[in-house]
Amino acid sequence: MAGDQMHVLSALDSAKTQWYHFTAIVIAGMGFFTDAYDLFCISLVTKLIGRVYYTVDGASKPGSLPPNVSAAVNGVAFVGTLTGQLFFGWLGDRVGRKSVYGMTLLLMIICSVASGLSFGDTPTSVMATLCFFRFWLGFGIGGDYPLSATIMSEYANKRTRGAFIAAVFAMQGFGILAGGAVAIGITAIFRSRFPAPPFAADPAASTPPQADYVWRLILMFGALPAALTFYWRMRMPETARYTAIVAKNAERAAADMSKVLQVKITAEQAEMASPVDKPFTSKPFGLFSGEFARRHGFHLLGTTSTWLLLDIAYYSQNLFQKDIFSAIGWIPEAKTMSALDELYHIARAQTLIALCGTVPGYWFTVALIDVVGRFKIQAAGFFMMTAFMLALAVPYDHWTAAGNQIGFVVLYALTFFFANFGPNATTFIVPAEIYPARLRATCHGISAASGKVGAIVGSFGFLYLAQTPDPAKAAAHGYPPGIGVRNSLFALAGCSLLGFLLTFLVPEPKGKSLEEMSRENEAGQP
């Protein structure tokens, strides 16, 4: 696009920040609220589910999920998310962002409630139905990644675009805190109403029958915020960039732009934004074309590989931090607590880590991303994650000694801070800014799906890798021998270092228009 043909899209890029932008952040961010809430809560309630359904009479320790069941419950939502990212990313480019946007939220609402209603006569059947609904919950969550990022990037002006997309992603922080608050609140109510002795004192009475309701209620609460924003999501207009550049509907683009900019734009003005019938525009190229590979091949390698490596490190720690806390003695031994006491202690510990490390990192990104830039934040984040993981791993025996646990937790929280004030946010933001409009959601979905492959590696791999190398001790927990927590931290540090190096493949979109980054203002663009 040249000269006057860039007029209307330039108006979008230079538009003042308006109330509509903040409304869009909340509406678009609810999917990430639900995503973080579910991820946070499932890592909490697996301990309780193990006690409720897998306690063996006469055993010396409380019940826990068998390794294969634990891996399935934790991993199946990731498989659904990966599938949803690819499918809805492709669909969002084919039929429009708005057309499928409500569908993803509806799936989340239905499946969050259904997860809490998981039914069956045996533990196996209950876990099977839970996994079924969690797959489809993940499918809906997955669709929200490319759609929310693309919608926010196409609504925003170029000065604050990074902060707006980061704010959508930062809704995960509120989801984490809400998950902790709901888990602590529900557990506290049930503890006071149905007091129970520690497992060591009375194994059978330590898990009251009412504990089966606790994990169900916690999972079902995740549907509430999503349900409250469903109506407003359905009322969001299609993005003007999609309508003008991809759908080539000037009249509709004018109406959509007017809603966002709150100014009157005519169809003739909107038509200027569309590259239709330009004499120098060659045939649009596709995702698998040589032209795409030439222009964006290294970009796609950069966004997919860095997201993959980030999620291997991030999710392996995030999902199993309760086990790390137990290993360093920050949470009492399971048999010294009742089932609800254990859930309460884990929820409190994880919420503290989130409050001190995870959530502030999101908002540092929101505040600084359009000042510092995406590249610097991502590179520095990966570098600091590497440093703090090594600081945990090298003197690991020191951190596990009595009296040193607080230092371990501080360093552990700092790795989460620099993940969120770093690649966890930027790997989500950049793919929504650097690809052409007709392939934007697809490429974001591919990048996000690569990240979820990393999450699957982390959630399955770390579960086994972090087990003690001692075969006898590992077998007592139902696992094959692993490499231990210390060596696992070394491996995660290696992933972070590789992420730092691959960040150099990713361009810097700060202060540039979407059309400039995607090179849609050059001949041959779709």
Automatic annotation (TrEMBL):
Gene3D superfamilies xrefs: MFS general substrate transporter like domains (1.20.1250.20)
Listed InterPro entries: MFS_dom (IPR020846), MFS_sugar_transport-like (IPR005828), MFS_trans_sf (IPR036259), Phos_permease (IPR004738)
GO molecular function, one term: phosphate transmembrane transporter activity
Keywords tagged on the record: Membrane, Phosphate transport, Symport, Transmembrane, Transmembrane helix, Transport
Principal location listed in the UniProt entry: membrane
NCBIfam families: 2A0109
GO BP term, pick one: phosphate ion transport
SUPFAM superfamilies referenced in this protein's UniProt entry, alphabetically: MFS general substrate transporter
Protein name: H(+)/Pi cotransporter
TM spans (from-to): 20-49, 69-88, 100-119, 163-190, 213-232, 352-369, 375-394, 406-430, 489-507
Family the entry assigns: Belongs to the major facilitator superfamily. Phosphate:H(+) symporter (TC 2.A.1.9) family.
Domain of life of the organism encoding this protein: Eukaryota
Boundaries of every Major facilitator superfamily (MFS) profile domain copy: 24-511
Subcellular location: Membrane
Pfam families in alphabetical order: Sugar_tr (PF00083)
GO CC, alphabetical: membrane
Membrane-topology descriptor: Multi-pass membrane protein
PROSITE patterns recorded: MFS (PS50850)
